[in-house]
Amino acid sequence: MSPSLPTEAELEAVADVTARIRGAVASVLSGLDQAISATLATALAQGHLLMEDVPGVGKTTLARAFAASINCSVGRIQFTPDLLPSDVTGVSIFRADDHRFEFRPGPIFANVVIADEINRASPKTQAALLESMQERAVTVDGATRALPAPFLVVATQNPVEMEGTYPLPEAQRDRFMAQVSVGYPEARAEMAMLDSHGGHDPLSEVTPVADAQALLDAIHVARRIYAAPAIKQYIVDLVTATRQDAALRLGASPRASLQLLAAAKARAAMAARNHVLPDDVKALAVPVLAHRLIVSTESRLSGRTAAQITRELVSATAVPSGARDAAPAREAAIVRAT
Amino acid sequence: MRTGAPGRSPWLATPLIAGATFLGLYGLSTMLEMGLWMRSVATVLIVAAAAAIITRLLSHSRTLPTVVAALAAVIVMVPLFARGEDGSRHILPTPGALGDLGVALRDGVDYAAATVAPAPASLALTALITAGAVAMFLFAEHLAVSWRATATAGLVLLLPWLPAVVFQHRVPSAALLAAIVCWLLALAFTRRGAPTDRRVPIAGAVAATVATMAAALVVVPTAMGGNGWGMIPRIDAPASLQTATRLNLALDLRTSLTTNSTTPVITYSTSGGQVEALRVYALTDFNGVEWDREVTDLPGSSASSGLLWSETVPDWEELSRERIDIQVLNLIESNLPLPPSPRTVDIDGPWYYDHDRDEVVGDGVSTANLQYSVVTADDYTSPDELRDAQPAIRAGGDPTDPRYVTVSPAIDSGRVADLTAEVTGDATTRYDQAVAIQDFLRNTSEFTYDTSVSPSGGDAVSTFLEDRTGYCVQFGTTMVVMARTLDIPARLAVGFLGGEATTSSTFVVEGGDAHVWPELWFPGEGWVRFEPTPAVQTGPPPSYADPYLNAPSDGEQAPRGPTTAAPQQMPEDMLPAPAQPTPGQAAAQDDGVPLWVPVGIALLLVTAGVLAWWWRARGGSRLSSAASAEQVWERLRAELPEPLQWPASLTPYEAAEHAESGMRVIGDGLSGGAREALTRLAHAVADARYAPEGTSADVATLRGWASAVAEEAHAAAKAERAGVR
User: Fold this and answer.
1) Interface contact A136, partner B, CB < 8 A
2) Nearest CB to B691 within list A275, A314, A315
């Protein structure tokens, strides 16, 4: 553990910033605490977010509200089948007056990039975005240009109306730290929404409550959160469980373990805690793990989703009180009729 | 902070290492005589340890405490060991005093090189040992406390025990175990505070290790009939070392003999036939069970300066004399083996004659591989002359030293005196009394020669007179004591019997020929040897004390031919110890498990238990408090009624919620106090498990919270059952 633990003042600052962002976003979208938490945790853990849900539940609104609550540059790309990679990354244009090429940065050169309906673009364009996400840099015409920090991609995706789309392959879904489903709001939240959306765009009322530097500071604090060996053991146990479960064709990758730990640290920092609790891991297990898992055909036909299976695994995996050397043990083998 | 934090109380390791160093002296117990000199070592170690601890409290330096401790040790050693040329004591560590300390250390080295083990500790040797112990302590302490390499320091602390392992000596196992315990505790106190969550119950580990070591070192080998060292791998000493032989001067009448040495120790050649005995030492003080030999100054007169005998020999030139050329082999003694009759010695080197003891003593030399020649008159003594000493006895010709007639108060002297009076009957002269006692003891219908003796209390002579079974030590000692009850000055001589002939004029003496015999004083004649040990071991008695030779022939001396059958050397007599003697080696072996073994183990376990309890009671370290939080949590889970018990997949906070909702199912939920207690307990457990700084709650508080919750839950469960009924 080379870096020192964050001080209480630093943790308070993180909690304060995240609470303000949460408040600003919640003023636009009520009843989405889980999704907002996962979004914030992903941002603090320097991950990227995939929002997958039916149209009209506020995916884009959530992403835009989040971007608007932070005083930073925002890029927005509406993915279409004819979108080209250069439309994302930018192009070099020859300027005739001084006889040289000038780079025109694409929309990806922003702190928060909203990639709407990512599955509508061609795989080539998707790959350009995903590569930039991974490397936090763009290479155009042989020159590598770093993307600004912090850098957060919030991509949305529509699981229905899949005709004519290019669903993200598993390898590319793995690059998103978390996937959040917004879901239909509760009746009362929807009533409140109808009331507040009385004619004007609530997004226009969102004022920035934090700046990019505050977010960067928070990211640095989150990295230094302490994770006890028992926590790491717990993550390994969970990930191993996904790899062994018969209902899953593909389990979670080691990258998933890393990102689950990073996200859990961020969540702990948001709670002004200097150490990770298994509660953090549990809360983030579905958002971080579920979208990477491939459900076996039998399970899918019996109507089970990856998120469901993940939840079952979480509730069947013992919370370790200390690190073990032995192989992880599940409380009970899960036996299901298939 | 747990990260890189040092062990809880590293300074506690310093006195523990000093203790282990001091206990290491017992590892040398076969080479040194334990005694008051150990106080000096202890004093210097205490001062050095205190200096190290104080310096550590004031400074964070790694080397400074060791340097200060070394200086403190030197300052204390000056008044203890440095002596000026005139023998005056130095108080201050002036340059001259330090020089004298250096001289003392060099003297110690010389002394150690020249002295035969077990060496009585002289001032110089004590200085040397102290310096060695302090150096060992400083090195081990520096490793253990400055560098937290206590495990490696254990290797340093092991050094003084190495001779015992290599040469298979018996050392006090209790001291070894105590040293190991010291080291283990030091290990616990200097533990590195690694950033780990593994909960190490230190006290439990120490207790378990101690118990295991005790079992491995003592219980198992003892149960298997070994001697308690069984599990320690042994290295056989090289052959040259093994053949070295010494006489065991710790003559204990309670000890059975178990080994038989056929190692040749002396060869000699003479035309006069086999010598009766070769005398090496004289012992005077007997305490009822064992003989004690006091250390005296070196005598002044050179051994080669003339006739050596305890009484003047007026007619030396007229006696028939024989020359004996003696070659000592690998026998390491500080005294020359000499025939027990008037003699002159031709020998080079610093050998001196002790007139009182009739011994020739070497100054810093030993007998190993020594060659010398002796001219002796072995028919010097005759019965008539011994009888004629009677007037001189009455005239007060006995030595004035009262020790020669002292009977230890431990001995039932009245009974021995009655028996002696009965045995000597109407004998009127000292000679006749002595022969009567000797014949009484040699009578095989009364006494049995046997190397195993039954254990006795404080009066081994009375035990022997009852059992009538023993070997030379019992026979010789009993004759000395019986003679002393008659006020005859008597002492015990230690040496060898004459050995066996290899040719007509050469003889070899083996280790098994080691022997003791009584010497009685006759004015004008000197100390006269008698032989009360039965013939089975010793052959015929000395010619002047043999009634079969003397009674019929009325004064005519029967010559002892050179072809006299050598006494059959049956089992060895006295124990010649390998390499260095091991006093009391055989003592415990025949009596089963000595009492101290179970007592020692019990004490160790109790000590370990008390330490463990103490560690836990004071909250232990953070780690042990984490372990106890976990324990309290698990116990609460087991104690709670079924519906409240949480599955293992729940985090502490979820578990608390689970229990609380369970309470709402079986009753009205938890009261405010119990809910708070449950929340706090869950918080403490989460902290203990996952927080870098652990939990600050102590065990008692944790238990209080748990019992508050458990009580309420049980009351609710009981009420629910009553309601259902």
Assistant:
1) no
2) A275
Instruction: Quote the CATH superfamily of domain A1-224.
Output: P-loop containing nucleotide triphosphate hydrolases (3.40.50.300)
The answer to whether B195 faces chain A, any CB pair under 8 Å, is yes
Pairing of strands B322-328, B264-270: antiparallel
Assess B388–A contact: CB distance below 8 Å, yes or no.
Answer: no
Q: Which one, of B559, B564, B484, lies nearest residue B518 by Cα? A: B484
Q: What is the average pLDDT across A243-261?
A: 89
Cβ–Cβ contact B650 with A under 8 A: yes
Average pLDDT over chain B, rounded to an integer: 78
Q: CA of B632 to nearest chain A CA: how many angstroms apart?
A: 13
- Check CB contact under 8 Å for B691 and A322: no
Cα gap A259→A46, rounded to integer Å:
9
Q: What is the mean pLDDT of residues A161-166?
A: 77
Query: B507, B481 in Cβ contact below 8 A?
Result: no
For the ranges A268-277, B85-94, B224-233, B248-257, the maximum mean pLDDT occurs at A268-277
Q: What is the 3-state secondary structure (H, E, C) of chain A?
A: CCCCCCCHHHHHHHHHHHHHHHHHHHHHCCCCHHHHHHHHHHHHCCCCEEEECCCCCCHHHHHHHHHHHEECCEEEEECCCCCCHHHHHEEEEEECCCCEEEEEECCCCCCEEEEECHHHCCHHHHHHHHHHHHHCEEEECCEEEECCCCCEEEEEECCCCCCCCCCCCHHHHCCCCEEECCCCCCHHHHHHHHHHCCCCCHHHHCCCCEEHHHHHHHHHHHHCCECCHHHHHHHHHHHHHHHHCCCEEECCCHHHHHHHHHHHHHHHHHCCCCECCHHHHHHHHHHHHHHHCEECHHHHHCCCCHHHHHHHHHHHECCCCCCCCCCCCECCCCCCCC
Question: Does A315 lie at the interface with B, CB-CB under 8 angstroms?
Answer: yes
CA B343 to each of CA A86, B268, B527: distance values in angstroms, whole numbers, following the listed order: 122, 15, 13
Alpha-carbon gap, residue A248 to A306, rounded angstroms = 8
Quick: pLDDT tens for B507-548. 888 878 888 899 999 988 889 999 998 887 787 888 888 877
At A277 the pLDDT is 92
Mean pLDDT, rounded, for B449-467 = 81
**CATH architecture assigned to A226-338:** Orthogonal Bundle (1.10)
- Whether residues B198 and A322 touch (CB distance < 8 A) is answered with yes
- pLDDT score, position B689: 85
Residue B480: how many other CB atoms lie within 10 Å: 30
H or E, element range at B680: helix B672-690
Q: What angle do CA A102, A103, A106 make, to 5 degrees?
A: 150
Alpha-carbon gap, residue B667 to A218, rounded angstroms:
45
Helix (H, G, I), strand (E, B) or coil at B28: helix
CA dist., res. B207 & res. B209, Å (int): 5
Q: Spell out the domain ranges in chain A.
A: 1-224, 226-338
The tens digit of pLDDT for each residue in A133-159 reads 888 888 888 888 889 888 999 898 887
B18's enclosing H/E stretch is: helix B13-24
Any chain A CB within 8 A of the CB of B651? yes
- Most confident among A18-32, A223-237, B320-334, B363-377 (mean pLDDT): A223-237
Q: What is the pLDDT of residue B215?
A: 62
Kindly indicate whether the ipTM for this predicted assembly is greater than 0.85, answering yes or no. no
More confident residue, B445 or B480: B480
- Distance from the B712 Cα atom to the nearest Cα atom in chain A, whole angstroms: 26
Q: Which residues of B touch A276 (CB under 8 A)?
A: 690
Q: Which two tokens stand for residue A201?
A: 């765009």
- pLDDT at res. B557: 43
User: Is it the case that residue A52 has pLDDT exceeding 70?
Assistant: yes
Q: By the 8 A CB rule, do A114 and A68 touch?
A: no
